[in-house]
Amino acid sequence: MNAALPLILASSSPRRSDLLRELGVGFQVQTSPAEEIQPEHLSPQEICKINAHRKADAVAQRNPDAWVLGADTLVFLGNQIFGKPKDLSQAHDMLTALQGKVHHVITGVCLLNLAQRKRKVFSDTTSVRFRSLTDADIDSYHALIQPLDKAGAYAIQDHGDRIVESIVGSHSNVVGLPLERLKLAFDELGISPN
């Protein structure tokens, strides 16, 4: 078992930290310097997995003996990708485009240990149906949360019932980490709670 090896979360996301704590896994946080990329020829799943690997690898280079967890979450509707909005106007436009429709939330995950030459990369997809929303609904929702650091300009865990009608799949995936799949990966790799 690798219980003695540290686990490093390559993300400053408080939501991902909260989710990892739910699994009872001891970890430390080191923000990855890797920039997210979105090559147009790749599927959203491939983009998320590549970015998760880039984030994990950048931190693993400094911590080769540790397990490093990188993750990247994107929202997409059809072929259109919704990353983090640049400003409130773009955040409003995102929710306007998503309202009343089913969209998908993908999180790519990479677990990497350079010293052991082990790597596991996967993605999980959740379908989310939004309620029909007016401009006033969107403005009042954005007054309750900070949408600029969230893919798709929303957070299901923060007043999500105001905008989300239903989901199919992992709820935690929409928050930022698919805990069900992650626990299986931890078990498979021998990463135990500390």
Structure explained in plain terms:
- The protein has 194 residues and is α/β, with parallel strands linked by helices.
- The chain has a single domain, classed as Maf protein (Alpha-Beta Complex).
- The chain has 6 helices and 7 strands.
- Strands 1, 2, 3, 4, 5, 6 and 7 form a 7-stranded mixed β-sheet that branches.
- α1 links the parallel β1 and β2.
- The longest helix has 17 residues.
- The chain is elongated, with a radius of gyration of 17 Å.
- The termini are close together.
- The model has no long low-confidence stretch (mean pLDDT 92).
Notable characteristics:
elongated, 7-stranded mixed β-sheet, 194 residues, Maf protein, alpha/beta
Short description:
This protein has 194 residues and is α/β, with parallel strands linked by helices.
Q: Return the domain count.
A: 1
Count of DSSP H/I helices: 6
Termini gap: 11 Å
- Succession of helices and strands: EHEHEEHEEHEHH
Q: So what's the oligomer here?
A: single chain
Give the class-level CATH name. Answer: Alpha Beta
* Fraction of residues in β-strands: 25-35%
Mean pLDDT across all amino acids? 92
Give me the CATH fold name.
Maf protein
The helix content is 25-40%
Helix-and-strand structural type: alpha/beta
| Low-pLDDT sequence parts | none
Largest sheet: 7 strands, mixed
How many β-strands, per DSSP?
7
CATH architectural grouping = Alpha-Beta Complex
Cα-based radius of gyration, to the nearest Å:
17 Å
- Could you say which overall geometry the principal axes of the C-alpha atoms support? elongated
